[in-house]
Design brief:
AraC-bd, disordered N terminus, Jelly Rolls, transcription, transcription regulation, globular, five-stranded antiparallel β-sheet, about 50% helix, DNA-binding, AraC family transcriptional regulator, 12 helices, Arc Repressor Mutant, subunit A, alpha+beta
Amino acid sequence: MKRENGIQPRRLLNEQYMELNRSFNIFVQRLTKPSPLHWHEFYEMCVITGGTGSNVLNGVAHPLERGSLFLLTPADFHEVYPDPDSVLHVYNVIFSEEMLVGELRELLLYGNASRMIRLEEDALLRVEQEYKIIDREVREPKTAQRLMVKGALERILIELLRQREISSADRNLLAVEASASGHVAIANALPFIHHHFREPLRLQDAAREASLAPGYFSTCFRQTTGLTFQHYLQNLRIEFGAALLLASDRPVTDICYASGFRTLTHFERVFKSKYGCSPRQYQQQGR
């Protein structure tokens, strides 16, 4: 799984992989060669139905085998390697953030609980049927196509939720969210923040997404997450930068701006405060 120096990860865009006015697509793949390092503008959820290999997610390798299921967000980098003499059989559904709503979105995106699991055989067979429903709806569109796809997608995501461990901290956070309407509004804004944090995102933009006044949004945000909006945003950016440092050989300056920082000095100062070394040292240690 050694990557050649100088490789630049591709960003896969909605318009390249989804038809106009459609917020989802599905691919049935047989991988015999590595899928190079890339990241997405959309969410991606894959299940492995045959073969073995590795999914290198944000610089960390995870084994793949029949039953492996993983969800990727727009903040994730990954590359897939089939094992020698193996063919990876993959159902791959992609979808935009508008398909991930409500309580399910909150459970999936809060905290550090794993979005990569291995399904037992009975669960895998259920999930395969849901992917086949999505595949059929994409190939042969009928009335209420989006509702059918959304239902199948949600059932797959529920299988992911039920078979992973959610930390007590996540449960406590969700309990806090449910206790006040302001916190529910914050929960609704978080996927927007996670999708756009690399852009010049302002507190006012997030407050508008939550339908709250900026001052009240700021108060609710800190009560819900334990962090100020700017600190939360900075954490997203620096963790994204750290993942990209491990996943690619891009220059530190490029990674700084790709992560949403405006100056290299600020990026390096925040990075050293969090990780105890410079970005260059961190990248070299990961090779």
